[in-house]
Amino acid sequence: LNQALAEIAGENYVISNEERHLYEGRPTKNKLQILTDNKKLDRHLYERIFDLKQIYTKEKLQHLQRNDRLVELFTTLHENNSIAVVTNCVRETAEIMLEKIGVKHLVHLLVCASDGFRQKPESDMYKYVMEKLGYVRARTIIFEDSDIGWSAAHFSGANVIRVSNPTDIDDRLI
Fold it and tell me: Which candidate, 83, 82, 105, 104, places its Cα nearest to that of 93?
């Protein structure tokens, strides 16, 4: 996002490391709204920034590598469980990421920000997954790596395990 912001709106709109906590885990359009509220980003630039950000994201995803450790973990979980991925990413980005790291075929359900649900920090996407898969909240485990996502997962009523990033998930947590 910062690359697109700098190019279209200017360096004054780049999100600094000190500000990152305000934006982390939020969908891009929400981040742009926060920038409008806090720094007076012109709303007319949203579509151009969003589109350019998607181009840059796709370029970066081309370098993403298969993650054998996550493939092994997902394979183990897949034997006796349904795996869902809930993300504030747009579907195309999420599908590319899952394919690149090698786990897309192991995911039973993918729910994305672009699917029409209220996005994290609302818990709608998590509640939908549990209902769709027939899971009881008390027997569902959600791994979450952002404050926004943790809040959504917590309010879904499921068990939540906080991780720093997705690579923190390993056999010891299962």
Answer: 104
The closest of 54, 49, 56 to 5, measured between CA atoms, is 49
Tokens of 32: 């742009």
Question: In angstroms, how far is the first alpha carbon of the chain from the final one?
Answer: 33
C-alpha 121: how far from chain center: 11
155 Cβ neighbours under 8 A, 6+ residues apart: 121, 122, 123
Phi and psi torsions of 67, nearest 5°: -115, 95
Which of 138, 136, 143 is closest to 170 using CA atoms?
143
32-66 pLDDT, tens per residue? 999 999 999 999 999 999 999 999 999 999 999 99
- State both tokens at 160: 């939540």
Token pair belonging to 101: 């790291």
Quick check: 136 and 167 in contact, CB under 8 A? no
The alpha carbon torsion through 131, 132, 136, 139 (nearest 10 deg) reads -140
**CA 120 to each of CA 12, 19, 25, 132, 146: distance values in angstroms, whole numbers, following the listed order:** 27, 19, 8, 18, 10
Measure the CA–CA gap between 174 and 143, rounded to whole angstroms. 10
Question: pLDDT tens digits, residue range 59-81?
Answer: 999 999 999 988 998 999 899 88
Question: pTM of this prediction?
Answer: 0.83
* Three-state DSSP class for residue 122: coil
